[in-house]
TrEMBL record:
Belongs to the carbohydrate kinase PfkB family. Pfam families: PfkB (PF00294). Its EC number is 2.7.1.92. Keywords: ATP-binding, Kinase, Nucleotide-binding, Transferase. PANTHER family: 5-DEHYDRO-2-DEOXYGLUCONOKINASE, HEXOKINASE FAMILY MEMBER. GO terms for molecular function: 5-dehydro-2-deoxygluconokinase activity. Signal peptide: none annotated. This is 5-dehydro-2-deoxygluconokinase. It is an enzyme of class 2 (transferase).
Length: 334
């Protein structure tokens, strides 16, 4: 069963809002950053990656965000446009802010980390006045991700986008995307995550991300079914809890649960798994697939991206995804 209904007759399928940055992924893998000398530049940031994944799969995709007024900012906007993403909602910072940089260190397939340069970044300067109600109204869905809630005015911009989306029946997806290095205070983080989740129809996160939200409320059960049930008295119809290489579980408001296994991959690096999962999972749901099938599509997309060098540029097309699902081995959840 698919519990979601999307407004039809809208110009766009999905608009993502938030972080647009640059990933500099180590070319020399299996070594620490200290010994890495060359990197390849890609567009990065969780909502950017999800938007790129959506567009590659054929979704009419738009973006609301802010880029720096320099070569890096222009690189990002050009790349989004080359990938058929509508950039009418992307504004250019005029205060001298810079583009966030994420240097990735790939010590081994399972030991990857990200070194962030995020002082005075343009994406967190997105202002509520730059969020256009008419633009959001044209879309079937809105995707938010947690990092944009880390600072004002981007935080207020996201809450305003959620208000408009709720008002105009635009289905809201929340990919928790908790990046501790973007936040300074645990209670502040949890409060804003919980407030945003109340306004969303679909919440997707890892067990650890939900634990972070629940710790503030002294919930220490780490119980997936309980975690999901907390959101059904708000707007949520569907809550997905991801467990890395062990797959994921989705709960629907009608009391059912759905498990997805994984497509074992030759892992190059683990980051990007969540973004590729989200883009294909959302695509599946928006195209009438059952929850379990959409989750399987998410897992297939993730297995493709973790076996490639980048997060954004590695996103599969519809054809690649279908082919992978037909030919790759699927390991059902235990
Ligand atoms: N080692 C793996 N092999 C195959 N598939 C995997 C592996 N790790 C993750 N996945 C797939 O990716 C999905 C999301 O992974 P995970 O739970 O690690 O999300 P995440 O922590 O949000 O990812 P990210 O590292 O991008 O933040 C999983 O549900 C699974 O389908
Ligand atoms: O901003 C980050 O934390 C890194 C991203 O740029 C990266 O593309 C990512 O989020 C992968 O999930």
């Amino acid at each position: 069963m698919n519990p979601l209904k999307f407004e039809q007759n809208r110009l766009l399928d999905i608009i993502a809002i938030g972080r647009l940055c640059i990933d500099l992924n180590a070319n020399e893998t299996n070594r620490p950053m200290e010994e890495t000398s060359t990197f390849t530049k890609y567009v990065g940031g969780s909502p950017a990656n999800i938007a790129i994944g959506s567009a590659r799969l054929g979704q009419k995709t738009g973006f609301i965000g802010k880029v720096s007024d320099d070569q890096m900012g222009r690189f990002i906007t050009n790349y989004l446009e080359e990938n058929n993403i509508d950039t009418n909602g992307v504004t250019v910072d005029k205060t001298g802010a810079v583009t966030g940089l994420a240097f990735t260190e790939i010590k081994s397939p399972t030991d990857c980390s990200i070194l962030m340069y995020r002082d005075n970044v343009a994406d967190l300067k997105l202002h509520p006045s730059e969020v256009d109600e008419e633009y959001i109204k044209q879309s079937k869905a809105l995707l938010i991700s947690g990092t944009a809630l880390a600072k004002s005015p981007s935080r207020e911009a996201v809450f305003l986008a959620l208000e408009y989306a709720n008002k105009h029946n635009v289905t809201c997806f929340f990919d928790l995307d908790y990046r501790p290095y973007s936040w300074t205070d645990e209670a502040e983080t949890a409060v804003y995550y919980n407030l945003a989740a109340e306004k969303c129809e679909v919440i997707i996160g890892t067990r650890e991300e939900f634990d972070m939200m629940e710790k503030l409320l002294n919930i220490d059960k780490s119980d997936d079914s309980y975690t999901a049930s907390r959101w059904f008295s708000y707007r949520a119809d569907l809550v997905v809890i991801k467990h890395g290489g062990e797959g994921s579980i989705g709960y629907t408001k009608d009391g059912n649960s759905h498990r997805s296994g994984i497509f074992p991959a030759k892992v190059l690096k683990t980051f990007g798994a969540g973004d590729s999962y989200a883009s294909a999972f959302i695509y599946g749901l928006m195209n009438g697939k059952e929850v379990s099938e959409a989750m399987k599509m998410g897992s297939a997309s993730a297995s493709i991206v973790i076996s490639r060098h980048s997060c954004s540029d590695a996103m599969p097309t519809n054809e690649e995804l279908n082919q992978h699902m037909e030919t790759a081995v699927y390991e059902p959840a235990k």
